Structure formats: C-alpha cells, structure tokens
Amino acid sequence: MKQNSHNLKQAYTQKKRLIRARLNDFQKIIRTADDNRLFEELTFCICTAGASAKMGLKSVDAMRDILPNGSLSKLRKRLDGVHRYPNARPTYVIHTREYLKREYDFKIKDLLKSFQDPIERRDFFAKNKNIKGIGYKESSHFLRNIGFSGYAILDKHILNTLYELKIIKSPKPPTTRDKYLEIEDKFKEFADNIGIHIDELDLLLWSEKTGEILK
C-alpha cells in the first residue's frame, strides 16, 4: 500500500501538468458553453455508459449537427456502425432532450447552476427517470466533464485500482446510491491522504490503467 502510494505520487509528478490542463479544459465549459454544447457532453456520457469513452466520443461526432433537433431515425442512422447499441442510445438521447426542452426550456446551464448542493445536483441526473441511460457513474462523469469538482467517476479502471490498493473489498460496481457514496468517500479520503485532489487523482488512476488522459 505504501509503495503503491509512492508510485502514484511519482506518476502524478510526471503527469500533473497534463492532468491540470485537461481539468482546466473541463472548467472552461461551464463558463463558456451554450446549452447545446452542454447537451453534447450529456449525450457523450449517455453513449459512454455500457460502452467506452472512445465510443462515446465517436458517437457525439457522428450526431453533433443534428443533436438539437434530429429525429430518432436520423440519430439511429448516424450511430449505425459507430455504437454497439445504435438503436437504444438515440432513444435515450431523444427522451432526455425532449424532457429538458419541455420542463426546462432546454436551459441546461441555468438548471445546473440552480443547485447549491453538489450531491443534489448529481442526484437530479442520476435518479431522474427522464434522464435516460445514466446512473451515478455517468452523472459524475458528465458533471466533471463540464467543470464541476469533487465527483468520483467509479468506472472499472478506478474500482480495480482501489481494490488493488485495498481501499475497497471488491472491484464490483456499486449498485445503489448509498454504496456509490460510500466508495466515493473512501476515494476522497485516500486522495486527501496522499495529497492529490480527487479530480486529479481520478484522471491519474484512469491514465495509469489506460495510458491516456482522456475525458
């Protein structure tokens, strides 16, 4: 455990500049992006769930110009051969899009900033049956990617690392809100103990497993 922590600190020293640059990119989004851009990030997370970040990126690239108003059939056609679930994911995207238009006039930035509590902000996306296709992991991913801080993205790479470090007893994904928060708290405590902010540590652990600092 001690040796692993030491290795992580060394890796952090080497990657700190790139990690902080990536986080700065994320933080610019909530300050400068319009609502369509924010919806792109939400769509990315819907398409990443049950797939991969790269597949999510390719999916958004394929649909970007028609995301605001494209029909289900057009979105499905764009994802054919791009996503492993080309029929289901556009259904989630359109259901979510129309809900945000109907209930919030698609003012996603105003909606996000209306929450004072970061846990409530994530709960809105993770527990909302009208935000289709994402739970706590991808809700955390979405919020981190648009510049909100302090969320753990408990994907398989992070969970496996926490398990290897003996911080958690099993690498299995949490299946309830309480379990997610419990692991997140342990992750935050570990981050505090080694002196690396949780946002930076998340990207560091992901890059140590994948070799990339992606999103």
Please count the beta strands (DSSP E, at least 2 residues each).
0
Strand content is under 5%
Q: Determine the N-to-C terminus distance.
A: 27 Å
**Class from secondary-structure proportions:** mainly alpha
Biggest beta sheet attributes: none
Rounded mean pLDDT is: 94
* The top level CATH class name of the largest domain: Mainly Alpha
Reported by name, the CATH topology of the largest domain is Endonuclease III, domain 1
Task: Provide a count of the helices.
Answer: 11
User: How many structurally independent domains?
Assistant: 2
- Helical fraction equals 55-70%
CATH superfamily of the largest domain: Hypothetical protein, domain 2
Mind telling me which CATH architecture of the largest domain this is?
Orthogonal Bundle
Give the structure's gist in a few sentences.
With 215 residues, the chain is mostly helical. Helices cover 68% and strands 0% of the residues. The relative contact order is 0.14.
